[in-house]
Amino acid sequence: MTDTSVETPVLTAPEHGENGARGTGSPMIVFEAVTKIYDPNIVALRDVSLTIDKGEFVFLVGPSGSGKSTMMRLLLKELEPTSGRIIIGGRELNRLKRSKVPMLRRNLGCVFQDFKLLPNRTAFENVAYALKVQGESRAGIRTKVPEVLGLVGLASKMSQMPDELSGGEQQRVSIARAFVNHPPLLICDEPTGNLDPDTSVGIMQLLYRINRTGTTVVMATHDREMVDKMRRRVIALDEGTVMRDERRGSYVA
Amino acid sequence: MWPRARLFLQEALSSVSSNLSTTIAATMTVLIGMFLLGLFIALGTWVLSWTNDVKRQLVVNVYFCTDVTCEGRGEVKRSEIEALRSKLVSLPQVKDVQFISSEEALEIQKKRTPGLVENLASNPLPASYKITPHKGEDVSAIAAQLEPVPAGVEKVNYGKKEADRVLQVAKIVGGIVLTGSLLLIAASILLISNTIRLSIFARRREVEVMKLVGATNWFVRGPFMLEGIITGLIGSVLAVILLIVAKEVALAKIVERDWLSNDDVTALSFPLIALILVVTSLLVGAAGSGITLRRFLRI
Fold first, then answer.
1. DSSP string covering A44-104, please?
2. I need a surface site. Which of A39, B77, B80, B84 has the fewest CB within 10 A?
């Protein structure tokens, strides 16, 4: 994912049709007959094939254990598929060398249910870490971090520690960290799972705004209300297989 | 390279200060382990040096014939004395051969027991060779080479019983010192690396997060290893300071100086011990963090 051809221009919004944010036609993520079997014999994903286009906003829904998190972890190359191919931005993950995995992750923003912030570091330092790992200059850090923290509405709380922030604020920090590199793809694993409904709306609006800049957003969620309200593409998983894939879907069929 | 080193140092220092209690615990562990190790090395090498000194005192005495002692053979001839010397010098185990004439023997005896030699009419003591071996263990081998006794020699004596006892004790002491220091080294390495393991284990989620935002293994490892090195450095320097205090204050008061003033018996030089301690703890600090991290980096 180091080649520049992958990068979507972040400031030009993709075309929005009647159905809201849609893909631009070129694929961001391709799953080709992906199967993942955990030891000893638990099938997490069974022969999953799907394509997510650049600029799309996709909900991944399904009960616990349906394979959502496995898909997320496969995208981060935290896990390897048992069979099948995964292609992100034209690059096949199976062929990606271990040493290139950090490069992949710098081009993927990820947001988790439990925020995964570094304790003992301020909001500023947490966001700065994502820049430091790729050797960003101090000057770059000093301009980019306040900018993105301002974008998520935390300009005044940059020097707070995570445990001094509310859940919603912590999730905003984590989104800021995921977005600070302006990655072409943002992966969110139940980002509102730990938040109350009002706070969740704020987070969703933030993700929506990020999607409007051209970033592809894939979000696994249990939040039925949110999915039904947003009317975006919904991919429903159950027991490791794709049950539904609708352009303007809802949580239940 | 340098901006990165500075970044690692900043990361390591801020992590030292924000995990102060674990850092202090790890530093104390290093301190205690290295203090004990230093004490044992000093004591052990001193004891070894002492046993070596005792072993050095093992010699083979060859007593030459006098008119009285060798009946019928008469007094030893000068040529026989010279012949024996050249034979002894050619033996590989022999370090030094010292000739003691009967007059010198009398002088020595006079010094030791003045009353005993006061009233002697003539000198009854024979001339002799005092043979010093390279190693104390070789006295019996040298004695065996002089079997049967060469011409002009009355008897060969190396205090068999005494020598055997000295050698046996030296062997046991050496064994104790060796196993003791190996055990202590192993124990302090385990103790220190275990403390480091625990402190990293407590922060394994941090490692996971770092990897997920795209840190390379070395980017995660660097600050952690540097932290281990800092801990090892502070702990071992404190241990060295404590050892200096112990040496200068406590030892001087407990043990009378003149008993220790034998220049032939010394411990390993203090700067060398200090160096061993510091290097050991630096290595354990760095390697301990690096090895422990391996498990958590596989994400």
1. EEEEEEEEEETT-EEEEE--TTSSHHHHHHHHTTSS--SEEEEEETTEEGGGS-GGGHHHH
2. A39
